[in-house]
Amino acid sequence: MGAMYRTAAVSNPSRPDQRWEGEFQIDTGAIDCVVPRKHLEAIGIEPEERRVYRLADGTEMNLDVGIVRLEFMGGRSGVDAVFADDDAQPLLSARAMESLNVSIDMSEHILRRLPAANL
Q1: What homologous superfamily does CATH list for 5-102?
Q2: What's the pLDDT score for residue 6?
Q3: Comparing C-alpha atoms, which of 38, 18, 12 is closest to residue 90?
Q4: pTM for this prediction
């Protein structure tokens, strides 16, 4: 089974007209979204902190993280975005999908927006 990709947009929370839209890979193993640094800087996002992340191969990296407004499937949410290399594949994380009340069915390659969120 192949990877799942969808179009999403990230924008500057304080200036929503500053936005970037692109194809993101759905990554249920990722904790935070990943966006190429050049796109985050172009919309005025600045790093808020550095965090240690463990990659799929076990390598640990110290990476910049900022806060963006994610627009996806008709919803909007503030999420953490990792400043990745300029040629990195953008990733939508499981936590971001949950914040937008989107259910992920990887076996059927279907994303569903749930009618209500659990409290």
Answers
A1: Acid Proteases (2.40.70.10)
A2: 94
A3: 38
A4: 0.90
